[in-house]
Amino acid sequence: MFHAAMQAAIEGARTLAQMDELSRQLWQGHGSGVLGDQEAQILAERLHGRRSAIREGIKPVGIPAGRASLFPPRRSVRSPDRAASRERRRLLACSGPLPPQLAARFTEGQRAVLRIVGDEVAAKGVCSLCIDSIAARAGVCRRLAQGAIRLAEGDGLLTIEERRHEGRKNSPNLVRIISREWQAWMRRGAGQKRTSFAFTSEGRAQPKAIGCKAMHPTDKRITLGTSLPAGPVKKLPERQSFAHR
Q1: Could you give the 3-state DSSP secondary structure of residue 150?
Q2: Is the confidence at residue 88, as pLDDT, over 50?
Q3: Where are the alpha helices (DSSP H) in the chain?
Q4: How far apart are alpha carbons 13 and 19 in whole angstroms?
Q5: Domains (ranges, CATH) in the chain?
Q6: pTM for the full model?
Q7: pLDDT digits (tens, 9 = 90+) for 30-80
């Protein structure tokens, strides 16, 4: 009887929310022993087919004809100065963004992208830059920046938290570094004089040191290691002693 009621409910469902609720009831019935393995499998396959049909029938409202998204198409962005982008990419890739055993897995452009991500994580604890900003700072294209971050995620070096919003523009993903080797490498660099990069108006990267130079106060009048100029030595008069009479 439960099997027939579930089958009728699946055929009469019209929304994805109803399908999710029926799926929950289906596996609860299977867990309690009301449905056998074969019956549950048949209902699950039918539920999956109905869910796919409902999903294909959903059409977003407000999208003009011939367009796949409500938002305007993304225009391709090219670097205004490719020579400056190439110089910036090489400089970032050679600055040691990762430990050698990890850096060997990535190309020059990918290492430049991971350097930008690592600097943001070191400064703020998480990288919340949009992918276009990361690509522009690293001197690479948008697709290469996406691929580098996804490749690092696949290697278990970082995590990506997506922030999607229904009906409006998504927020930038949050990237966090979870590799212990990478974190130790960043802490070691922070303990020393870590080099960051400032970007000029022409798009060129200039290294700048973070930290203060150690200054030791000294006496400006006499410098250690130097001797006073030689001159005539004056003999002091001898002290006269008077005997008590």
Answers
A1: helix
A2: yes
A3: 2-12, 16-32, 37-57, 82-93, 100-103, 108-124, 131-138, 142-154, 180-191
A4: 7
A5: 2-57 (no CATH), 82-209 (1.10.10.10)
A6: 0.51
A7: 778 888 888 888 888 888 888 888 877 766 555 556 665 555 666 666 667
